[in-house]
């Protein structure tokens, strides 16, 4: 009487093992292609780029929120502005400061209705964000303390002068990075230039640099001399 073995034969397992190896290799190959972009179809390239863009935006948002929280807690200039905003009747919290993607022409913004915008993809360092945050906080301070009429070009120009003057936005290292190497009246020239550029974006200017410069010149002396709430230029 012949006996029947229950052990699987070698011939029946080899194809299964080979199939598993091929599937593992295929997964590895696809993974490498996704990382490197080599061997992908046009549709795969589009999906890969979209995925990378989403991941990059998420990473920049996380970085922006982390830096924002640190600056709100540890920056002397930000803490100073928080205190004076509160004294002026504005209790600014992290909920009023929004990290969002922007176009690359700016680093931040202020809206009386929406609060402060930090352009998460526009910062090359935490100190850059600090200067931008203080800049926008000066706008908020002006809005609360001096009841700025943002439709008025002269009002807008005055706040832009003060924000550029007091925020650190025009310190020498920042100007060098922008490609300006002036040693005589560097700070003054920067404040004037950046105020004009900002006022140009006012709806009533529509990019008219002559009108923007006229508005800045009309309020220049009084607004540049006004360093409130700082005792001197930051």
Automatic annotation (TrEMBL):
Q: Does the keyword Hydrolase apply?
A: yes
Q: Residue ranges of region Disordered?
A: 1-22
Which parts of the chain span the membrane according to its record?
none
* Low complexity bias (residue ranges): 1-15
Q: Which GO terms describe its molecular function?
A: metal ion binding; metalloendopeptidase activity
Top-level taxonomic group: Eukaryota
Which residue spans adopt a coiled-coil conformation according to this UniProt entry?
none
Q: How does it sit in the membrane?
A: Peripheral membrane protein
UniProt keyword Protease, yes or no = yes
Q: Which GO terms describe its biological process?
A: mitochondrial protein processing; mitochondrial proton-transporting ATP synthase complex assembly
Q: What's the top EC group for this one?
A: hydrolase
Tell me a GO cellular component: mitochondrial inner membrane
Q: Where in the cell is it found?
A: Mitochondrion inner membrane
- EC number(s) recorded for this UniProt protein: 3.4.24.-
Q: What does this protein do?
A: Has a dual role in the assembly of mitochondrial ATPase.
Stated family? Belongs to the peptidase M76 family.
Record protein name field: Mitochondrial inner membrane protease ATP23
């Amino acid at each position: 009487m012949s006996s029947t073995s229950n052990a699987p034969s070698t011939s029946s397992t080899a194809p299964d093992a080979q199939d598993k190896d091929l599937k593992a290799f295929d997964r590895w190959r696809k993974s490498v292609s996704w990382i490197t972009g080599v061997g992908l179809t046009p549709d795969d390239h589009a999906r890969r780029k979209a995925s990378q863009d989403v991941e990059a935006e998420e990473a920049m948002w996380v970085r922006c929120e982390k830096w924002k929280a640190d600056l709100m807690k540890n920056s002397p200039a930000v803490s100073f502005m928080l205190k004076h905003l509160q004294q002026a009747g504005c209790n600014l919290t992290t909920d009023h400061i929004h990290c969002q993607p922007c176009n690359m022409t700016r680093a931040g913004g202020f809206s009386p209705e929406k609060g402060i915008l930090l352009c998460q993809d526009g910062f090359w360092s935490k100190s850059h964000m600090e200067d931008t945050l203080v800049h926008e906080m000066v706008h908020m301070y002006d809005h609360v303390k001096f009841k700025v009429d943002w439709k008025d070009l002269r009002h807008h120009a005055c706040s832009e002068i003060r924000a550029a003057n007091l925020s650190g936005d025009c310190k020498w290292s920042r100007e060098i990075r922008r490609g300006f190497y002036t040693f005589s009246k560097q700070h003054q020239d920067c404040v004037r230039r950046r105020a004009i550029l900002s006022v140009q974006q006012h709806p009533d200017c529509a990019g008219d640099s002559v009108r923007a410069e006229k508005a800045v010149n009309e309020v220049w002396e009084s607004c540049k001399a006004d360093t409130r709430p700082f005792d001197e230029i930051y």
